[in-house]
Specification:
By secondary structure, this protein is α/β, with parallel strands linked by helices. The protein has a domain at 56-156: 3-Layer(aba) Sandwich (Glutaredoxin), CATH 3.40.30. Helices cover 30% and strands 25% of the residues. The chain has helices at 48-59, 61-66, 79-89, 102-106, 144-156; strands spanning 18-20, 26-28, 36-41, 69-75, 94-97, 110-112, 117-119, 122-126, 132-136. The strands form 3 sheets. It has a 5-stranded mixed sheet with strand order 5-4-3-8-9. The chain has a two-stranded antiparallel ribbon with strand order 1-2. The longest helix has 13 residues, at 144-156.
């Protein structure tokens, strides 16, 4: 997990977004008001790390639901790509398409460096009042879902 004190987004209001899901239905941050939200950004559908991460969150969906949290994934892939990815993996949560990079920019997850040009795998835990309660940047997939769940349990009290 990112050192919470050093991440400038920690404790601030989560940036608003409105993005389409795999079926073209638009979802906004305000749709999740009053609930905990695990908002995770990932580089690309159907790549090894992204597949493992999506499976991990999907398998833990009931545990997150018991903690009052919804899970939403975001990448720059198209709605059609998300449809195939969701069907292939049997995902049980929404993934949103951000082809214009609006949310990707707002959450500061786009990296344009020599070694990385694209989305830096990142997760944001957003509290029911819309503030960012925890931030993970440069996520390593193994153990990440468990770490997010443990953090959610702690911050919920």
């Amino acid at each position: 997990m990112t050192d919470q004190k050093s991440d400038p987004m920690m404790g601030s209001p989560a940036p608003e977004f409105c993005l389409p899901d795999a079926e073209g239905e638009e979802y906004c941050l305000t749709d999740f008001a009053g609930k905990w939200l695990v908002l995770y950004f990932y580089p690309r559908d159907n790549t090894p790390g992204c597949t493992l991460e999506a499976r991990g969150f999907s398998e833990a969906i009931e545990e997150f639901a018991r903690l009052g949290a919804e899970i939403v994934g975001v990448s720059a892939d198209s709605e059609a790509s998300h449809q195939k990815f969701t069907a292939k993996l049997g995902l049980r949560f929404r993934i949103l398409s951000d082809q214009k990079h609006a949310a990707i920019a707002a959450y500061k997850v786009w990296k344009d460096r020599a070694l990385l040009k694209g989305i830096e795998r990142s997760t944001f835990l957003i509290s029911p009042d819309g503030t960012i309660a925890a931030v993970w940047r440069k996520v390593r997939v193994p153990g990440h879902v468990e770490e997010v769940k443990e953090t959610l349990q702690k911050v919920r009290g």
